[in-house]
Specification:
The structure is a homodimer. In chain A, α2 packs parallel to α3 and α7 crosses α9. The longest helix of chain A has 20 residues. In chain A, a hairpin with a 2-residue loop joins β15 and β16. The radius of gyration of chain A is 22 Å and the shape is globular. In chain A, the strands form four sheets. Chain A has a seven-stranded mixed sheet, sandwiched between helices. The first copy, chain A, has a five-stranded mixed sheet with strand order 5-12-10-9-8, with helices on both faces. The first copy, chain A, has a four-stranded mixed sheet with strand order 2-4-6-7, sandwiched between helices. Chain A is α/β, with parallel strands linked by helices and about 425 residues long. Chain A folds into two domains: about 270 residues, 4-Layer Sandwich (L-amino peptidase D-ALA esterase/amidase); about 130 residues, Ubiquitin-like (UB roll) (Roll). The interface between A and B is large, with 71 and 71 residues.
């Protein structure tokens, strides 16, 4: 069943960062990128991360009703709040593979557990690639075993980010530092998504590492909060993967002084919380910037909605609309399509109080076109790589109080490149 | 603001019917197609339908939160259950036009009411075309006034279907007959949707006419039922318009004998009910067959879902998925993407009992690929114009009873043609 693939030669996204971020080594985190030869030829496709014994873990997963075997396993293993190893393979998503898939995921966890001397329950797995093909764990386990001999390249974050790519056109990473009590801590993260070639499913994987000591329960809250305003606000095509996984590991090297951390609102957590929000948004923008066939990145700000969740739904309705996406690709400030998308979101919106800005110029106000607005700066804005759309949906309570729900969404446009990538014959 | 447009010369959809259906004249229904010269040059763009005094009316409209002024007006006028006239203009949707738009719609209703000698409340309006441009009712009213002199072409259904097109590549109509007590009745329908050129919003308009006498309350139930299994099961790009309108008029020429009709389950209604379901599905297939840039029509059958509504959501998730649509365009039986779409629908589905047929061949069963299925008939099926996808999502109750929710969805694929049509610069 398994088809060998040479590395795809898609052109690098025009929105790729100029260079790979500089990520410092992290105490308690050892990375090892390997080539298992399972599917791709001539590149690393397997990542093993060894984690200190003190490591706490948190995670968020796809809400798909068809989760992969790797997602099933990691979701279960997350319950303990501890982790000693993370294994990521690229090329086969181990999704829709039935009992054989569950066994393959467990075999991977057992193999890694033996290497790092821990319980299989302390191992998390993420798999990305083709759906519905059986995953043979043997070459992955052999690669991990063989690489024991060589020196672990502890800080090669770029090699790690490359090893988890499927058809991404650039490796994605971000880093931040923050005060943590008396300490300076570091947050490093890598992610993959969402280029695609024929049979592979675009999936989003993101892994955040820090040397701070944060208990798993709090770590989960931190991650969920940051994720809700970053990766969960990205859309390329509205197609939710079976394998989306975001995990955060706190190796515990740096402890905060004073009483144990208990609440998200503990002031000592504030710098970490802010740095994590920034880091995750950085990753989110990188993922959207590598959307299949992207020519322009949309940033969509929604305000005046009933709730933040309603604002997010409205923003996603705009960012997912094929008509809005093609208009942006065509450099057409077609705000009529934005109105349509807001209307179809199903969320409360006041047609006759709605306003829309494109590139900072108000083009619609109080439910109709702004008569005679200057189209030149708008047309110039549409010709750039970054398109900013801001809508105020004007919801008011019965007492005329203005609603304050807001959200920011990042989305790619829809181009011939998307069709080329996804309508290829499966070879 | 108004830009004159010559008629678009998009190639006719490869899925267009061979010829326009033969629609017989209907007692109590007079059609008049006219050219107002408002936006399009050299074609009719205005339709006036005069209806007998006995006419009962029912309607369903877009669920958009940004409805057009025409939708607002027709929704209000529908309340009475009676209608004497229908006015449809193509080229300007009169949507997102504020108070001026509401006044323009009312002026159209008043003008038509004067011509047919009725109350403005007995006139329904539908408008389709560009969003956010003020609609000037004057040329429309003038055209209606002028055409008074000429003979009403009572049975020119093709002229009527053509007059309401925007960028459709073919005129859409369907007809059925049915027994109605001792009578033979006729159902005629015309529809438009969903080609598109730059600034116009794809909208769906459908009008059904019958010479039967059916009270408005029952007519509404009949229409809602048929619509739920036809037009509401069509998707081109998942973008709900601000103007979608489907109206049904019963002119009342043919009365059913016996007691008044009261219930949808009255046996005397059964032939009409069946004919209406067929007629509406015929229209639905025609609309999907003219989806922007279409190369293949998907028919998606879903069964084993929790409810019919859940089945419909799953079918729409498949039919709207850009990844499924591009795979179909690329003639790739990529059922992994179908699994993904089912998973993202949010509806209950049993991964490990899921089965998928493509072109009648089972490719996945019990949550995994069918080992060694014959790919040749599937590949051949994918090369055709009609792609049939059937999924059984295998939901069971706690008592192991199999769920029976089912739905059928029609969807176009996603091709370079779609991008060409929608990413054009707005001229």
């Amino acid at each position: 069943m398994t088809t060998k693939k040479t590395v795809a030669s898609l052109p690098v996204s025009p929105l790729a960062p100029k260079k790979f971020a500089k990520l410092a080594p992290l105490a308690g985190v050892e990375l090892q990128a390997m080539a298992s030869g399972s599917r791709y030829v001539g590149r690393d496709d397997l990542l093993l991360v060894r984690l200190a014994e003190t490591t706490q873990v948190a995670g968020v997963f796809t809400r798909s009703k068809m989760p992969s075997a790797a997602v099933d396993l990691s979701r279960a293993h997350l319950a303990g709040g501890k982790a000693r190893a993370l294994v990521v393979n690229a090329g086969n998503a181990n999704a829709f593979t039935g009992k054989a898939g569950a066994k393959a995921a467990l075999d991977m966890a057992k193999g890694a557990a033996k290497l790092v001397d821990c319980q299989p329950e302390d191992v998390l797995i993420a798999s990305t690639g083709v759906i519905g093909e059986d995953l043979d764990p043997a070459p992955l386990l052999a690669a991990m075993q063989d690489s024991q001999a060589g020196p672990a390249k502890r800080s090669d974050w770029q090699a790690a980010a490359r090893a988890i790519m499927t058809t991404d056109t650039f490796a994605k990473a971000a880093t931040r530092t923050a005060k943590f009590g008396k300490h300076q801590i570091t947050l490093n993260a890598i992610a993959k998504g969402s280029g695609m070639i024929a049979p592979d499913m675009a999936t989003l994987l993101a892994f955040v590492f820090t040397d701070a000591h944060v208990p798993a329960r709090l770590l989960q809250k931190l991650l969920s909060e940051a994720n809700g305003q970053s990766l969960n606000c990205v859309t390329v095509d509205g197609d939710t993967s079976t394998s989306d996984t975001c995990l955060m590991f706190a190796s515990g090297d740096k402890k905060c002084d004073g009483a144990p951390l208990r609440s998200l609102d503990d002031k000592r957590l504030a710098p970490l919380r802010a740095a994590l929000a920034e880091l995750m948004q950085d990753l989110a923008v990188q993922v959207a910037s590598d959307g299949e066939g992207i020519s322009k990145l949309m940033t969509i700000e929604v305000m005046g909605a009933e709730t933040d969740a309603a604002a997010r739904n409205i923003g996603l309705a705009i960012g997912n609309s094929p008509l809005v996406k093609t208009a942006v690709a065509g450099e057409d400030a077609n705000w009529g399509r934005i109105v349509m998308a807001i209307g179809k979101s199903g969320e409360a919106a006041e047609r006759d109080r709605l306003s829309i800005d494109i590139g900072g110029v108000q083009v619609a106000r109080k439910g109709r076109a702004v008569a005679g607005y200057d189209e030149r700066p708008v047309a110039k804005h549409m010709r750039g790589r970054h398109v900013h759309i801001r809508v105020n949906v004007g919801v008011q309570s019965k007492t005329k109080k203005k609603a304050t729900g807001k959200a920011r969404i990042w989305a790619s446009d829809l181009t011939h490149g998307y069709i080329d990538i996804n309508a290829d014959y499966r070879s």
